[in-house]
Specification:
24 strands, 1 helix, mainly beta, eight-stranded parallel sheet, globular
Length: 281
């Protein structure tokens, strides 16, 4: 495993745990030992809930390809997906949603705008992408995703259960100036079976029972501030190390800009292939 680093503009801090399985001689990473804050101690949950507790149940569809969906919190037991998105090129989620949001659009790309939304689910992943070409999450305002399922082992074989608070079987991209907080009591925080990219983002915070961010094929950070906390896994992890159908190497973690702060029980950055850290262009 190779680690390429250049630290002039990039700051990566790994707290509690080694950077990778084998520490390189040359690194721009600062390390410091610290206890990992408990997920239940996260004060932002109550703060965000209070701000959005007065949202009313409504569903508004426009004549264009964009749909605005707003929902208030309900105490009813969730037995199915609260919302199912099966068409359109852009959807906006806002308000409080109690239950899981299913995205199932085949091979089509879709933009999901998270606009001051809180999503809580004890049924499945709060956001579960069953099918899509690529999902681009556009962040507006303050957003909160909470997975309240009981924690399990990552090797759970139930394919109907998403393995992260935000779980996708396709590429994920996070953009725009809003903020996002993800609390994952069940397993991983943000998990894609393919690639995950953070580009032109502001602030993303992930508290996870297992890995904070896991992109099976790759994870790329181009900008923004990422605060990642893992109680039992790694801060950022990739899993596959094979070549793609186009001959591209899988399994890389590439950080070319932004601030990445990691508290992890295991490795801070766990790559199936390479970890590449460089300056922004």
């Amino acid at each position: 495993m190779k680690v390429n680093t250049n630290k002039k503009y990039l700051f990566v801090l790994v707290l509690f745990g080694m950077l990778i399985g084998c520490s390189p001689k040359e690194s721009s990473i600062s390390t410091e030992t610290s206890s990992i804050p408990s997920i239940s101690q996260s004060s932002f949950i109550s703060e965000n809930s209070e701000k959005q507790s007065n949202s009313q149940l409504s569903s508004e569809k426009s004549s264009s390809s964009s749909t605005v969906i707003s929902s208030s919190t309900s105490s009813q037991t969730q037995t199915d997906f609260a919302l199912k998105i099966t068409s359109g090129t852009s959807q906006t989620l806002t308000g409080n949603i109690n239950g899981s949001v299913l995205i199932d659009v085949g091979d089509n790309d879709i933009e999901i705008v998270l606009s001051n939304v809180s999503i809580y689910s004890s049924f499945n992943s709060p956001i579960y992408v069953k099918s899509a070409g690529e999902v681009k999450f556009k962040l507006q305002g303050e957003n909160l995703i909470v997975d309240t399922r009981n924690n399990i082992d990552e090797n759970n074989e139930d394919d109907n259960q998403g393995k992260g608070a935000i779980y996708a079987k396709c590429d994920l991209k996070f953009t725009s100036s809003g903020s996002l907080i993800v609390v994952a009591n069940y397993n991983n925080g943000i998990h894609s079976s393919d690639d995950i990219t953070f580009k032109n983002t502001s602030k993303i915070q992930v508290d996870a029972f297992n890995n904070a961010v896991k992109g099976n094929d790759s994870v790329e950070v181009q900008s923004g501030t990422l605060l990642l906390r893992s109680q039992n896994g790694s801060g950022i992890k990739t899993e596959n190390s094979s070549l793609s159908s186009k001959g591209n190497q899988k399994g890389n973690i590439d950080i070319s800009g932004g601030d990445v702060i990691i508290y992890s029980y295991g490795d801070g950055l766990e790559a199936a292939n390479d970890v590449n850290i460089s300056n922004s262009p």
